[in-house]
């Protein structure tokens, strides 16, 4: 077995400044809260995986642990910080901003923190977005609201011009809160700064409502999102059970990964069918989706279908041959065809063909889910991620993101965090739980 991915984290140089975070217990200083920088959080978590490495324990691949260091790289009194939020909305963005500001000011004594508006556009002069002076007073209650106080946007901007802006404002730490596209941009900013000889730390707090970032147990806002999504599934169930032959269809986020659909469906077990991008399905035939729904409605009088937005794209492509291509959005993502509309049309046609009454309700709660405030669990997670990000940046770490792996907060190199998408394993225990909860077959068709 290969030694594993490169888990090393780039640093800007030696740390020579004593951290102002030294905790006090009575009159005695203690070092118990500092990170042991020689320790590692192991990549593998089973004996079989470790055995395949065929290497001594001290050589096993592991992540650098997150947390405060005894010595830091930046002098807090001279440090100027930038924060930017990019991409789509996600519960917890304001919690992360608030956590960064409070940790920087209250514990490290940093006094100049700038918020750049509307994503990477905020660095580009032609857009005319003003820079926000972030203070504890300003961010004190923003966690009570969804969205982001800084605004956000999609699309690439000139990285050279962004680094020019950082240089003009003497910013030495930049926190990027965003998804894989935003993190690719952050990696490019760090590269340009390094080539120019600038000592600028670029640290990411990874954001994705799809929960598809690899080497991270769970992305912030995901628990809030699937909890809110579960409410929509319950609403679809109520609608379906309140009408003869009722069918509820709920379309959730999940371009390439079905985690949100899986977790939301398991939260209340109202779903009869869950469709995700990782598991192809067919409409027709004895083992197809339509016949299964037909039988379920005959047996129970109703059915609920939960579909991730990226499911069934191959079926849509077949049906839309000869039509203009979907194109891409501002972030370069291929625009998905609407599987929800296809699903409702095919179900309606099937029941009409066999002359059975159908009462179908279609629910797409995507923007409601994205815009809500974080729940208490995610609020705690966000503030801990923010603390970890500040500790990393102040110690001169760069080109990395913070995340939690095996229930420990760690540093993940950006190239690793954007190397691929985490997906639901069709042979794994999560999908098995979905099959057990819904009673649907392993595969339709």
Describe the model.
The protein has 445 residues and is α/β, with parallel strands linked by helices. The chain has 2 domains: 242 residues, 3-Layer(aba) Sandwich (Rossmann fold), CATH 3.40.50.450; 162 residues, 3-Layer(aba) Sandwich (Rossmann fold). The chain is 35% helix and 18% strand. A 9-stranded mixed sheet has the order 5-6-19-18-12-11-8-9-10, sandwiched between helices. It has a 4-stranded parallel sheet with strand order 14-15-13-16, sandwiched between helices. Helix 2 crosses helix 12, helix 4 crosses helix 5 and helix 6 crosses helix 7. The radius of gyration is 24 Å and the shape is elongated.
- Specify the CATH class of the largest domain: Alpha Beta
Q: How many separate domains make up the residues?
A: 2
Low-confidence stretches: none
Tally of helical runs = 14
Short description:
This protein has helices at residues 47-53, 93-107, 136-139, 159-168, 180-196, 222-241, 259-268, 289-300, 313-319, 339-353, 366-371, 376-394, 414-417, 429-438; strands at residues 10-11, 17-18, 24-25, 28-29, 41-42, 62-65, 71-72, 80-85, 112-116, 131-133, 173-178, 201-206, 246-252, 273-275, 302-308, 359-363, 397-398, 400-405, 408-413.
Detail the topology: elements first, then pairings.
Layout: E1 10-11, E2 17-18, E3 24-25, E4 28-29, E5 41-42, H1 47-53, E6 62-65, E7 71-72, E8 80-85, H2 93-107, E9 112-116, E10 131-133, H3 136-139, H4 159-168, E11 173-178, H5 180-196, E12 201-206, H6 222-241, E13 246-252, H7 259-268, E14 273-275, H8 289-300, E15 302-308, H9 313-319, H10 339-353, E16 359-363, H11 366-371, H12 376-394, E17 397-398, E18 400-405, E19 408-413, H13 414-417, H14 429-438
Parallel strand pairs: 8-9, 8-11, 11-12, 12-18, 13-15, 13-16, 14-15
Antiparallel strand pairs: 1-17, 2-7, 3-4, 5-6, 6-19, 9-10, 18-19
């Amino acid at each position: 077995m290969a030694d594993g991915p490169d888990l090393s984290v780039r640093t800007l140089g030696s740390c020579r400044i004593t951290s102002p975070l030294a905790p006090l217990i009575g009159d005695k200083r203690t070092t118990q809260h500092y990170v042991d920088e020689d320790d590692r959080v192991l990549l593998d978590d089973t004996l079989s995986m470790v055995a395949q490495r065929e290497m001594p324990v001290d050589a096993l691949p592991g992540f650098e642990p997150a947390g405060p260091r005894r010595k830091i790289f930046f002098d807090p009194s001279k440090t100027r910080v930038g924060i930017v939020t990019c991409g789509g909305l996600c519960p917890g963005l304001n919690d992360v901003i608030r956590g960064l500001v409070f940790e920087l000011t209250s514990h490290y004594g940093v006094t100049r923190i700038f918020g750049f508006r509307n994503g990477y556009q905020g660095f580009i002069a032609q857009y005319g977005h003003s820079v926000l002076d972030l203070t504890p007073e300003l961010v004190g209650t923003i966690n009570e609201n969804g969205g982001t106080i800084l605004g956000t946007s999609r699309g690439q901007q000139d990285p050279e011009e962004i680094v020019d802006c950082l240089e003009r404002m003497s910013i030495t730490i930049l926190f990027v809160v965003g998804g894989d596209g935003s993190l690719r941009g952050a990696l490019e900013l760090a590269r340009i700064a390094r080539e120019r000889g600038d000592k600028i730390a670029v640290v990411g707090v990874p954001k994705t409502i799809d929960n598809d970032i690899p080497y991270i147990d769970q992305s912030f806002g995901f628990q809030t999102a699937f909890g809110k999504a579960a409410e929509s599934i319950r609403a679809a169930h109520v609608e379906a059970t309140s009408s003869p032959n009722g069918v509820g269809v709920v379309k959730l986020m999940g371009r390439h990964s079905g985690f949100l659909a899986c977790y939301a469906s398991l939260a209340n077990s109202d779903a009869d069918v869950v469709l995700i991008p990782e598991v192809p399905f067919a409409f027709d035939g004895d083992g197809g989706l339509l016949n299964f729904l037909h039988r379920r409605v005959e047996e129970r009088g109703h059915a609920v279908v939960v579909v991730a937005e990226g499911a069934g794209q191959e079926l849509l492509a077949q049906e839309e041959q000869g039509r203009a291509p979907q194109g891409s959005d501002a972030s370069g993502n291929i625009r998905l065809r609407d599987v929800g509309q296809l699903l409702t049309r095919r179900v309606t046609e099937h029941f009409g063909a066999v002359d059975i009454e159908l009462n179908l309700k279609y629910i797409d709660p995507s923007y409601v889910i994205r815009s809500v405030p974080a729940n208490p669990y995610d609020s705690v997670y966000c503030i801990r991620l923010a603390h970890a990000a500040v500790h990393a940046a102040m110690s001169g770490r760069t080109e990395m993101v913070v995340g939690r792996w095996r229930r420990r907060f760690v540093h993940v190199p950006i190239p690793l965090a954007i190397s691929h998408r985490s997906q639901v394993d069709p042979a794994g225990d999560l999908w098995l739980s979905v099959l057990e909860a819904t009673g649907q077959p392993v595969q339709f068709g």
